[in-house]
Amino acid sequence: MKFIQIGQLLAALMLAGNAAVTPVRAETAAFLTPNGQTAPFEAWSRGDANSSFAFFESFVGDPESAAVSEINPPNQSFGPGLSDANLIETTGAAFVPSSGNIYSPAVAIEIAATVPSYGLGAGYDTRVVVQVGTLGFLLDPASFLLEYEIDGEPQAVEPQLQQELAHRDLVGGFGGTLQETLYVWDLVGWNADQYVLSFAAADASTSLDNLAIDIFAAPGASVEGDYDASGAVDAADYTLWSTAYGSAGPAADGNNDGVVDAADYVYWRDRAATAGGALSVSAVPEPGTVQLAWQFGIAMLFCWGSHRAIAPRHREKGPQDAA
Description:
Helix content is 19%, strand content 30%. It has 323 residues and is of the alpha+beta class.
């Protein structure tokens, strides 16, 4: 995926922030819309294949859980399984005033939002962009966390980038601050079937006004020596190479000479050592050893078969053999 690097992204966002409209009312959001050009959406537009979007704006109370939640209206979201997308306030001490926001004068609100993605698995890079608007007091930026699973193993990742989109003091009412902030996660080599975003306010009297979550997945840049496209150069790639040894085709042909041979083992070995993972390359047999073992096995089978073919048969003596 051709995502620009985080440093470049920050610079681009600062320029975009300077050009963004200044909100006059809370509902006039400075949120950015994916357009395939403006960072951090330079790689896709909203509605492209493998993209999903969830927008939370008008919340309802849930008397069963004493918390507040919202299931996405279909006209505000799209993507796989969006009927399962939801947002919930987890302290149970918040309520929804007439504004339709999530608010508590007594506790710092805590939010968890679940958004499905495509579950494309290994070999795909994923960018998650969160834009959140609040009124009153501010959110705690250190509380933002994105959770998902890789082959059943839980992952919890902090954002790589935070950028303020709008900030102004509110006049009248309860006062406080209007703030809109953008967070970015770049997740290399994996696309999960869903992502769970959690965050919290820094103090009581924070009102969640709106939340937009955009997710996009695309094939990642290939990793040299990663024959099984898992995103890592590891023992599984050696297994694929040894299975494909002697065959023609791209399965484990690291040097692209049209055949899987010992040179492709060296290609994998050197990159596995450079990767510096848990794999002990020295523990993997050299291709010459593998080939000799294979040839020895064939030779033994040949000798056994030849012995069976030429060895005389023994039979019991009969009357014709009598002296």
